[in-house]
Specification:
Helix content: 10-25%
Shape: globular
Structural class: alpha+beta
């Protein structure tokens, strides 16, 4: 005997690019969406009955139709509209819409922003997740792969040592990380214009903070992000420590006054925490 205890299905990695041609200069939105539904779909699995099974191809087409009709003022507002639509379908009890937005910056030509040419900077991306049930929605926004580095005002000392410890203490080291941030809005929020403000506070705090550890700076950054928007209930940060190791130049008869490093990808420390109001 077996029981279907949980199920969810949907369409993933729906690629959507929208050009706002009615404005001058043009505006560009580049999204990748996942649509995932839960509801009364048990017989689709257990009996092979598809009467209640909304085709995932229909989900994809719905995204494109709504994109034509919606200004996509923000990934969150667009995802909320999609989620509301899917939850209004009787078999569906909840919808989860995940969005990743790839950034495009306007090219500068002869010192002036070009009206319709863009460049994609690095790998930084905006994210949004809308979880919609019949009694309301929960919106989580964020960013990922925001790579930052500072060359001083970072230390790590006073940690416990045992027979397996080889890491030297330092009062002056390189601090590099790739920031992943998530912030949850309180239920009922309808305006989502805080992301640039939160990003700015994360960067400003990283640069100015006198860091005693990655954990120390993470808490300061999350607190500053929380203070940037009254509609945000909590902020979660993940900071992988992108290690820069001082190269030993003594075998070559040279000193190394904290100037020459080797950057390593693996292994790395991963520091995570959530700060709530």
């Amino acid at each position: 005997m077996s029981t279907l205890s949980w199920n969810r299905y949907g369409k993933c990695r729906i690629r959507l690019v929208k050009v706002r041609r009615t404005v001058d200069p043009h505006e560009l939105v580049d999204l990748t969406l996942d649509v995932q539904l839960e509801g009364a779909f048990e017989k689709v699995y257990t009996e092979g009955e598809n009467q209640s099974c909304l085709a995932t191809d229909t989900m994809k087409n719905t995204v494109y139709v709504f994109a034509r009709q919606d200004p996509i003022a923000s990934p969150e507002s667009f995802a909320l509209r999609l989620a509301d639509h899917f939850v209004s379908t009787p078999p569906v009890s909840s919808a989860r819409i995940s969005v990743v937005e790839d950034r495009w910056d306007r090219l500068t030509v002869d010192g002036h922003p070009h009206p319709h040419a863009f460049v994609q900077p690095g790998g930084e991306r905006w994210t949004a997740i809308v979880e919609r049930e019949r009694d309301g929605s929960l919106v989580t926004s964020g960013l990922e792969n925001l790579v930052v580095l500072k060359t001083t005002d970072s230390a790590f000392s006073g940690f416990p040592r045992d027979r397996y410890t080889t890491l030297p203490e330092t009062e002056d080291r390189i601090f590099a990380t790739s920031v992943t941030a998530r912030w949850k809005y309180h239920r009922g929020t309808v305006e989502f214009g805080a992301r640039d403000r939160i990003r700015r506070r994360l960067l400003d705090t990283f640069a100015a903070h006198d860091s005693r550890s990655v954990q120390h700076t993470l808490h300061a950054m999350a607190t500053a992000a929380l203070e940037a928007c009254d509609d945000v209930d909590e902020v979660t940060l993940a900071l992988p420590n992108r290690h820069h190791l001082l190269v030993d130049l003594a075998p070559f008869g040279l000193d190394n006054p904290n100037e020459v490093f080797v950057a390593t990808d693996q292994p790395y420390g991963l520091i995570e925490a959530t700060v709530r109001r």
